[in-house]
Amino acid sequence: MTLLINLDLESDEPIYTQLKHQIIAGIAKGLLKPGDGLPSVRSMAADIGINLHTVNKAYQQLKQEGFILIHRQKGVVVNPDGVQQADEEYRSKLIKTLHPLIAESLCRGMNEDEFLQLCSRLFKEFS
Amino acid sequence: MTLLINLDLESDEPIYTQLKHQIIAGIAKGLLKPGDGLPSVRSMAADIGINLHTVNKAYQQLKQEGFILIHRQKGVVVNPDGVQQADEEYRSKLIKTLHPLIAESLCRGMNEDEFLQLCSRLFKEFS
DNA sequence: TATCTGTTATATTATATGTATAACAGATAG
DNA sequence: CTATCTGTTATACATATAATATAACAGATA
Prior knowledge:
The structure is a homodimer of 127-residue chains.
Chain A: H1 15-29, E1 37-38, H2 41-48, H3 52-64, E2 68-71, E3 75-78, H4 88-107, H5 112-124
Antiparallel strand pairs in A: 1-3, 2-3
Helix pairs in contact in A: 1-3, 2-3
Chain A binds a DNA duplex (30 and 30 nucleotides) through helix 2 and helix 3.
């Protein structure tokens, strides 16, 4: 099964970031399981019509963050050991990202319940 | 009362974005109330040791997003009518931001409860 | 008049993004 | 052995963003 990638070339979000997010979402949804193979940088680039180096940048970061392994022989593979569990560093990064989102939501009259319910709804997407 | 601004010049987050976030956080916490004045672009720039145009960029975006008003005479003022309530456009943008955060958190073994509790804890900071 | 305001215009430097082309070394299939 | 595919590295180029630096203008104010 091939994960279908959908890019928005007009978006402010860089292409390599969109690619990363969709692969991570694929893992979260279970469409990509530990050990599953991913297309080579060249074929992925050809498939979605972008440059080899843009794919490579996404892959390198996914490797750096523990989502995938890249073997010279076996190619690109979803980390068979699973992704490293959330540690303090990750939680700290997450909080730094969430903080301004919550601040703005409060300014715009969203209360805690509304926000949490929205998050809860997003969690339901991954199951 | 002057809102104290704390910048990290080493951060990946652009300076004007840090400034925006801290002003929005000030509003969310009630340190800045509707009608309160903000320093002029020049004095704010001098206070925190950055360029006038960097402050101006933050102010222009805050104005564009409805957080502040800029009068030729009265100077810079927190929107006296309050910020525009969350509409569908805002919720859609918020979802686009939260989606990849939740995907990665799931990959890293955080379940829904853990994530919601973390958000809840952040909400408590604004009261 | 002098000063402060927001605003606009230019210019420069540095970094990020994306593409293009090329090459190298290891593995594999014919 | 040859040809092909792999990840990887190196350069180069174009564009956009971020941040700074000066400078100027017009309106308001002391």
